[in-house]
Amino acid sequence: MKILTGGIGKTETAGAVTALALDGVEVTVSSDMDAALKLRAGQADYYLGTCHTGAGASLGVLVGLLGGDACHTFGRSVPTGDEIAALLADGKKVFGFSVDRIDAVTPALARAMAARRP
Length: 118
Hints:
5-stranded parallel beta sheet, Ribose 5-phosphate Isomerase B, Chain: A
């Protein structure tokens, strides 16, 4: 499974995923445009984007190119495991959140994504 990270905290987000050492999970720092193209082509599975508020810039390009149905932003909130599971079950592949929530949101998302692998 491949997770792409982008936005102002892309390196920190990638580091947080890598630190989990999840079996079979690859993480790559990306630009918004490259991530959208890779997701469309099936060359990546998920995208984690960060900005100052988590409410727009973290996902702007991806919403525009992939559509709102594939995307969800948590803003500055920290989602529960049940919320994440429901979003993944609904087909969300692109997630945005505030850069100051990387340490709380990234591990929960990455673990839930890894758990969904066949």
